[in-house]
């Protein structure tokens, strides 16, 4: 018995000696405590490679992979457009498209559905971790094809999805909570190299930080970029902040700038991470309600846990009951070693240096470890450079730099368009005519980008000969206000864009400069607008010397005048053949229902403003007020005079609530219709959370239902051919079935109704 005890003691001592020294708790230096690595890790290339390939727990990466795949599955039916794909890519439709490369064209409609099916299966495979690499390849190949196919849908978050999908394809995202882990136990719960986390964390840091850098723009700092968000949009703001100016400056612009500049740093450090996660989560939840930006807020919410310790899912799911752990991610086993990582070997000192502690050195660095480190460094440098690469692609620069979508300048620029005119001239006969703005296209973004305008003009020149217009010349007169500046031309209206030169690497020669010298006028705009009553509207115009604005005043605008602020103009009343010179500080009334032209005759840009009243709407509103007062007296029993026949429907309106009342007078009929719609709006806005959730779920159900059924029809067409036209019509009608009572787009119709859009 004593011998056995001695043997056991000897074995325990041997195991103790053989145990790796790094398992003993060691005191970390300040740099390692803050950043997670030592200064020595950056002093040489081998040390840097070993750092980027350091073994790391795969749990957090696996959870992010699953969440990202789920969000992309939802996004494909929503923002990617599966539910309305047939409207966008209908075969044979005369549509002008705006691909990044002109040789890119959409496939036939049924094949486009197949592309979306491949993308959907890829996203689903990413979510499940099923044939992971193949799923990533299926997703990103189709995603980038659709992305490059239409520049008009580009935005920063769509670009971000493509980047993350590309990164995941190169990472070991299927090592945790994946079907591949069940199929191949050798990869299940194996460690992943640190660069997997480094890439994702750096990408998200860049999104936040460069967005903050872009918000240092003077327009953002001064509160002009998003001033359209009023205090009513923020119910959480304290009462003393309920001023549009304070909300715009402090909450929207100041808060957005601070959060973007600091979020990446605060998420990185342990001490500030809990506060950062709280504020960015609140920020993204608020954005999901204020803006129609699809899955972006939820995707950013899914990225926040990446900054936590990689083993957080194990600790989180370990608190769940044991009966649920069969379907939940692993919580107890330690990750297995992986050949993708670099492990440190403990080298003991020689006999003559027993007092020296053991030294940890990385194991042999393989080629894939070095390539991974090189790729990580190059990718990060490229992502830092690309938002500032506009000096290369100068043809895409307009008033703002580059194609919108990869510069992280989210919400920095807001635009409004006052006037768009497309003029064509027959190259053989010289006949001049006008086109409806947006004809042959489904997008409006072409108005702000020279490259898209060139594509649009070229497309129009191909379509117009079908309408007996030979060798057409196309001229665009587009007036834009950016960040509440004057409305001004963005492109030279004298240039035939069909034959105009454009190169992606040369400045656009027919781009008109932004009149930034007139920006200080914006503070005066607010003073002028504040001095007007609620029925008076105003538009501020700036024009270049030698050009003129041709305008038509609607008959509804019975009181329209032009006030000159700067420069000299001549106003020509076309029908009366009169020319009137107007100096700064002077004004002239222009007739309604007629054309007039405003010529800039000074050597400097002219600035003037239209002040007008919609007399038709004002009269209608006055009648509505009288009808409302009569209706209130009827309800209160204070109406003593007998009602004339045309006003009697006002008394019957309450008895027929929810149904139309037969009214002969058009104004009474419109008033009752408006009142009924206002009640519906109020009812929907005051609905409880359960009812709102039900409406949201029903709306999404019919959207997803249509996408699914149209996909099934397309796959059937590819497999067995097109059915008879009658059958196809019935199938599409069934797919188009709407929610009962047609409430899907009711909110939009109600907004138009309240604003008297029917006039």
UniProtKB/TrEMBL annotation:
It catalyses: 4-carboxy-L-glutamyl-[protein] + 2,3-epoxyphylloquinone + H2O + H(+) = phylloquinol + L-glutamyl-[protein] + CO2 + O2. It holds the Pfam family VKGC_lumenal_dom. It comes from the Eukaryota. Keywords: Acetylation, Disulfide bond, Endoplasmic reticulum, Lyase, Membrane, Transmembrane, Transmembrane helix. Residues 1-28, 737-759 are annotated as: Disordered. The keyword Transmembrane helix applies. One of its GO terms (molecular function) is vitamin binding. It is found in: Endoplasmic reticulum membrane. Its main location: endoplasmic reticulum. Residues 13-28, 738-759 have a biased composition (Basic and acidic residues). It is a multi-pass membrane protein. InterPro entries: HTTM-like, HTTM_dom, RmlC_Cupin_sf, VKG_COase, VKGC_lumenal_dom. The chain crosses the membrane at residues 113-146, 158-177, 245-269. CDD domains: cupin_RmlC-like (cd02208). GO terms for cellular component: endoplasmic reticulum membrane. Residues 53-312 form the HTTM-like domain. Its EC number is 4.1.1.90. PANTHER family: VITAMIN K-DEPENDENT GAMMA-CARBOXYLASE. This is Vitamin K-dependent gamma-carboxylase.
């Amino acid at each position: 018995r004593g011998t056995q005890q001695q043997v056991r003691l000897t074995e325990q001592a041997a195991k103790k000696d053989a145990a790796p020294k790094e398992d003993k708790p060691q005191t970390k230096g300040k740099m390692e405590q803050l950043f997670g690595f030592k200064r020595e890790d950056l002093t040489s290339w081998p040390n840097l490679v070993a750092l980027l390939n350091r073994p790391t727990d795969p749990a957090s990466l696996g959870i992010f992979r699953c969440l990202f795949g789920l969000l992309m599955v939802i996004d494909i039916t929503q923002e990617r457009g599966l539910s309305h794909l047939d409207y966008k890519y209908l075969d044979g439709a005369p549509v002008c498209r705006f691909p990044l490369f002109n040789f890119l064209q959409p496939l036939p409609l049924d094949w486009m559905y197949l592309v979306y099916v491949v993308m959907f299966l890829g996203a689903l495979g990413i979510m499940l971790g099923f044939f992971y690499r193949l799923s990533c390849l299926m997703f990103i190949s189709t995603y980038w094809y659709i992305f490059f196919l239409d520049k008009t849908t580009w935005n920063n978050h769509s670009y971000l999805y493509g980047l993350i999908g590309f990164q995941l394809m190169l990472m070991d995202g299927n090592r945790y909570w994946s079907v591949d882990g069940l199929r191949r136990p050798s990869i299940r719960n194996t460690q992943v190299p640190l660069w997997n986390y480094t890439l994702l964390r750096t990408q998200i840091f860049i999104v936040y930080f460069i967005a903050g850098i872009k918000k240092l723009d003077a327009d953002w700092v001064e509160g002009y970029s998003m001033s359209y968000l009023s205090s009513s949009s923020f119910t959480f703001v304290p009462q003393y902040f309920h001023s549009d100016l304070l909300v715009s400056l402090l909450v929207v612009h100041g808060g957005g700038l601070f959060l973007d500049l600091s979020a990446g740093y605060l998420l990185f450090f342990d001490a500030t991470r809990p506060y950062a996660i709280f504020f960015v989560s609140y920020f993204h939840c608020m954005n999901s309600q204020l803006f129609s930006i699809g899955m972006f807020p939820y995707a950013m919410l899914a990225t926040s846990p990446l900054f936590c310790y990689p083993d957080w899912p194990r600790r989180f799911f370990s608190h769940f009951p044991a009966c649920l752990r069969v379907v939940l991610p692993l919580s107890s086993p330690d990750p297995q070693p992986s050949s993708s990582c670099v492990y440190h070997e403990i080298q003991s000192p020689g006999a003559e240096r027993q007092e020296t502690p053991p030294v940890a050195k990385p194991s042999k660095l393989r080629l894939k470890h070095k390539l991974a480190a090189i790729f990580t460094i190059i990718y990060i440098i490229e992502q830092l450079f690309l938002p500032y690469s506009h000096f290369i692609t100068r043809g895409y620069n307009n008033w703002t730099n580059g194609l919108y979508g990869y510069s992280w300048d989210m919400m920095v620029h807001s635009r409004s368009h006052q006037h768009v005119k497309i003029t064509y001239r027959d190259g053989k006969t010289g006949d001049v005519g006008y086109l409806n703005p947006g004809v042959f296209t489904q997008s409006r973004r072409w108005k702000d980008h020279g490259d898209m305008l060139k594509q649009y003009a070229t497309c129009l020149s191909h379509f117009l000969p079908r309408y007996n217009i030979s060798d057409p010349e196309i001229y665009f007169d587009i007036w834009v206000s950016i960040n509440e500046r004057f409305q001004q031309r963005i492109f030279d209206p004298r240039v035939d864009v069909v034959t105009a030169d454009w190169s992606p690497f040369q400045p656009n020669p027919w781009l008109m400069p932004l009149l930034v010298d007139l920006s200080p006028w914006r503070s005066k705009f607010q003073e002028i607008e504040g001095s007007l009553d609620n029925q008076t509207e105003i538009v501020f115009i700036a024009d270049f010397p030698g050009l003129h604005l041709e305008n038509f005043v609607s008959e509804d605008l019975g009181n329209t005048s032009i006030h000159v602020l700067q420069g000299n103009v001549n106003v020509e009343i076309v029908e009366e053949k009169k020319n009137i010179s107007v100096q700064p500080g002077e004004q002239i009334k222009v007739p309604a229902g007629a054309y007039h032209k405003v010529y800039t005759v000074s050597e400097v840009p002219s600035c003037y403003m239209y002040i007008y009243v919609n007399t038709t709407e004002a009269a209608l509103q006055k009648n509505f007020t009288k009808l409302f007062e009569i209706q209130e007296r009827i309800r209160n029993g204070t109406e003593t005079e007998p009602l004339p026949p045309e006003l009697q429907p006002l008394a019957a309106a309450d008895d027929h609530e929810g149904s139309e009342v037969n009214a002969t007078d058009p104004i009474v009929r419109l008033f009752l219709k408006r009142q009924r719609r206002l009640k519906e709006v109020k009812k929907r806005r005051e609905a409880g959370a359960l009812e709102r959730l039900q409406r949201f779920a029903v709306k999404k159900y019919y959207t997803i239902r249509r996408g699914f059924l149209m996909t099934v029809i397309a796959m059937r067409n590819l497999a067995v051919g097109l059915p008879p036209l009658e059958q196809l019509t019935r199938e599409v009608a069934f797919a188009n079935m709407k929610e009962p009572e047609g409430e899907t787009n009711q909110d939009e119709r109600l907004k138009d109704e309240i604003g008297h859009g029917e006039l």
